Structure formats: C-alpha cells, structure tokens
Amino acid sequence: MTPTGNKTKSVAISPGTSIGGRDIIMIAGPCSIESEAHLRETALAVAARGASLLRGGVFKMRTNSESFQGIGTPAFEFLGRVKADSKMPLVSEITDPRQIEMMIDTVDLFQVGSRNMYNYELLKELGRLKKPVILKRAFAATIDEWVHAAGYVTRGGNDQVILCERGIRTFETATRNTLDLNAVAWIKAHTEFPVVVDPSHGTGRRELVATMALAGIAAGADGIICEVHPRPDEALSDSFQALDFNAFEDLVNRCEAVAHAVGRTLYRPNSKIVHAKAATVAVG
Ligand code: PEP
Ligand code: MN
Q: Which CATH architecture has domain 21-59+68-258?
C-alpha cells in the first residue's frame, strides 16, 4: 500500500451525514435492541445529547450460544418508526448475506462485526450493494489483513467503507480488549478509509470508555461508536461497558472539546440538550 497522507475520502450515510470529513460523528445506542420502547428511549436520549447515528444490534454474534442472540426479524416491524422519530440513520450488524433483503431498506450503514471480518463471501455480497459498510477489525487481525478485508467490499464496486478499530486481543486481561490507536493513526496515514473508534468493546469497562474516546479523536478518528443503555446494569448484552445517558452527554461534550483542539468540529444535528454547555466547553 502506498501512503497517501491524510486524504480520507468521506462516506455519505444519509443526506447531511457523512463520515470522514471535518466533522466528528457520534454513533450511539444499545449493544442489542431489546424492544421498541427500549430503542426509542435510547435513540431520543442520545440524539438530544449529540449522536447523529443510531446503533443497535438485531442479530447478535455472541461467544456463548446460550446468551441473548438479539431479537431478530421482529425488530423490522418498528425500526422505521424509531428512525423517523429520532431523525437518525441506523447502523446495524449483518451476520449473514441472507439478511440483506430484510435489512436493506431500513439499515443505512451495514456493520460487519469482528467475528465476520474474515467472512469474505459476506464482504463480497456487500460489495455489490450501494450501501455503506462499517468493517470492524477482527480481534487478532493485523492492520494489513483488515485493510485487505475491506478490499473484498471495494473490489465489488462499493467503495463506501469505513473501518472501525474496536480493540485487539493481547496478553492483557484487565480490559476486555486493547484499543489499538496505532491502527487509527496508520489508517489515516496510509489509506483513504475513514476510521471510527469503538471504546466500548475496546475497553469493555464503562469507566474507561470516555477517556479512550477522547484519545481516539486525538489520534485522528473520524467518529466514535459507543454503547448506551437507559439502565446499563439491566442491558441484555455488554452491560459492563454500556454508558447511561448522563455519561454519554459528558462524553460528547468532552469529545467536542478535543475535536476543536485538533481542528475539527463535532456534528450535532439533533442536539437539543447540550448546545449551551457545548459552547461553554468550546470557549472555556
Ligand atoms: C457490536 O458492535 O455490538 C459488536 C458485537 O462488536 P464486535 O463485532 O466489535 O465485537
Ligand atoms: Mn456490544
């Protein structure tokens, strides 16, 4: 690969929202969608606090086959309503090419999870679509393998790929994963892909999420994807890393200050609650 400098090509997600430009994008929502009421409560809260994209898993890839696997197909009955109410595009994980038909009209950004980064048949199918893809790095993938996996999407004609650094597996056990910010700097220096940091899976511990989000932006990330739940301790998946609404609000305000420090802006199209505070952070 030839270094291209910091020449990230921005990827449009929906009218007005793209990833990879001057704006830092905040993607937030539950690990797993638990019900319509749960998703709506979370979506409205994160939108008001500065999120511009909603995340939420319908199909979950869980290590333990007995763990909650996501609510699956019935979610498609209400996802459109929640998107319309919260005015946010939706990011959701696709785990099998057979889900494309069901998801394509509702999901605005297909997430390929860590466990599927090497699923080249899935990546090739997504390469035939005109829909952006966020490709998470596998736990043990080298940067080179990750970028080559993205090539399976782009070679099909879909160059709308965003990479997501979500932590790799190392000898460390104090945290769930080790967030590799070298990779963020490397992707920005050597490729044209936008890159987003996931400090939720990258640390697995809610007390570390905000700090690593700030570090991610300082390292050059184009956005943050993080897990938020109205009552984190009750989350059906990944409860240890979920933030509550107040913690998310604080994280966004601090990310905005770091964004300004590195010459960027934080995109807040729906933000109602924190504009005044954000201005204080920016000036103060
Ligand atoms: C997720 O984002 O919900 C997820 C399962 O992430 P990862 O694939 O990075 O483990
Ligand atoms: Mn999760």
A: Alpha-Beta Barrel (3.20)
